[in-house]
């Protein structure tokens, strides 16, 4: 008999194991390249901090930038106050050596471009006003601009001081991304330059224009544009940058709907990149990203409907036996056998979990992460797939009903 759920399970398991093994082989085959290249010279760099109502975090952001271990005469910090209505402007003004510009509110892309027009350095970095950079991050990243074809370098992005269920989930998610982003760099397939402290050659913007101000995920668009023009994006797994992650479901949902809507928009805009001409990115990394989302949605749809049907059948049976809970429990204990759990599906599920734990351990080891895992990894293991799929369903609903995506 045709079992769609079983086919989905085996397809997802095969894809996960195949990709995981391929990614690990790629990682260890290039392990000698994990060490950051030596700096031959210190280029000038302008760090642009777009800020809108960031009074709670911008002080620590600027403190971390002022503490960077880099020649101060080569470093310029520009805060762009994007029409804030709180104390962002006053706090930024209180920092010596920080240049503060102000403009009417126009969005993050607009603020970055405003800063770009005032920057005169060879390199340009973007720094979110709710993130904090480690002291030596800049030194670790600069050496990666060893070829003229390298137009951007990304850092290792981690969650700052994760607390509570939602931040613990994101802590594990971000740590996996640390590993994958380095592997994608080995494959020359990095397709997003995160807002917290990605560094670019300013000459790229002078030649190809600034950030797309109408794009809700400007960091994804600019990365795809860089790749589409034949340039490279590198990554430093040793340059730590910490960001304040959403601490509740509402804020996280709003963030992910924006991110995933941006993925849909930009994948469509750059659909021409799904070709062998774009190497591993076009024939492997981008298609796999799309397939993974499709499979996740299929999983949630099928098993969600199956679960609802099971619950409905259970209530019907309970009604027929007059809700005799004691009788149901006794019957379950009588027929329970551990042998029923020893089958190919459960064994594959255990294998997947073990493989995921191995990859997490590798990510934690090679990124030198010192945060305590706590129960975050357990929460991630058993809930992330459901949460990820639910966010995608919400995003598709926004697209279908043409709802406005907000920051």
What does this protein look like?
The protein is 54% helix and 13% strand. With 407 residues, it is of the alpha/beta class. The chain has one domain (1-407): Spore Coat Polysaccharide Biosynthesis Protein SpsA, Chain A (Alpha-Beta Complex). An eight-stranded mixed sheet has the order 3-2-1-4-7-6-8-5, with helices on both faces. α2 (58-66) links the parallel β1 (45-51) and β2 (75-82). α1 (4-29) runs antiparallel to α10 and α9 packs across α13 (376-400). It starts with a helix and ends in a 7-residue tail after the last helix. The model has no long low-confidence stretch (mean pLDDT 90).
Keywords:
407 residues, Spore Coat Polysaccharide Biosynthesis Protein SpsA, Chain A, alpha/beta
Provide the fold topology.
Elements: H1 4-29, E1 45-51, H2 58-66, E2 75-82, H3 88-93, E3 98-103, H4 108-118, E4 123-126, E5 131-133, H5 137-142, E6 150-159, H6 164-186, E7 198-201, H7 202-208, H8 218-228, E8 232-243, H9 249-269, H10 279-320, H11 325-335, H12 344-366, H13 376-400
Parallel strand pairs: 1-2, 1-4, 2-3, 6-8
Antiparallel strand pairs: 4-7, 5-8, 6-7
